Amino acid sequence: MQHGTITRRTRVALVVTAGAMFATAAATAQQDAETAPATVKQVMLTMTVPSSDAIFSAASEPPKDDEQWVAVRTSAMMLAESGNLLMTRGRAKDNTTWMEMAREMVKQAEGTLTAVEARNADALAQAGDDVYVTCEACHARFMDK
Question: Residue 29 contacts by C-beta under 8 Å, 6 or more apart in sequence?
Answer without folding.
Answer: 84, 85, 88
